[in-house]
Amino acid sequence: MANTSLPKAVLFDLLTALLDSWTVWNAAAGSETQGRAWRTEYLRLTYGCGAYVPYEDLVATAAATVGLPPDSPRALEEHWTELPVWSGVQAALDEIEGQTKLAIVTNCSRRLGVLAANRLNTRWDCIVTAEDAGFYKPDPRPYRHALQELQVAPEHAAFVAGSGYDLFGTAAVGLRTYWHNRVGLARPDGAPAADIESPTFEGVVSWLKGFA
User: Fold this and answer.
1) In what order do the strands lie in the sheet with 9-12?
2) What is the C-alpha end-to-end distance of the chain, expressed in Å?
3) Are residues 142 and 128 in contact, defined by beta-carbon separation less than 8 angstroms?
4) Model pTM?
């Protein structure tokens, strides 16, 4: 029987909240320092982009901006199907699957989003990428696109973020948010606080079960 205290739907950021994409970016860049710089620049570009432009182009632009070799984006994509799942994530998804609708809202192309989502042994009710929505987060449209597909109002849904930039979008849509801040990112200037910010995923299920 479904747990009625859970929200009707839970939406997840993919590449930072559920998957350790940082490790793969670091490997493609050749070091953690270079990988962090590349990833930070990529996040700045995607979250500041608005209307969708090819994700792969933004990744390449970010690499060039921080001085990485031109073949770095290719190295990243070659290891895309090896993105590690953060500890605690699969167990939490297993616990709530079948009790609430589960969705992904991610800033990447459709092709790469589906490949990354397949790293998890979870049946997703919908996967929304920036390419699908036509806009990058934190524009409200990707979140709303997922909610429309799920047919769930924002007040009956929750979001698990990986980046503080998501907090702009979830606040605009009215989604309560758990920020799984695994890598210790700073909250962007002006971003509202999450309902909960934690370096681990272990608190997600108890937080969700507290919904009315």
Assistant:
1) 126-129, 101-106, 9-12, 157-161, 176-180, 196-198
2) 17
3) yes
4) 0.94
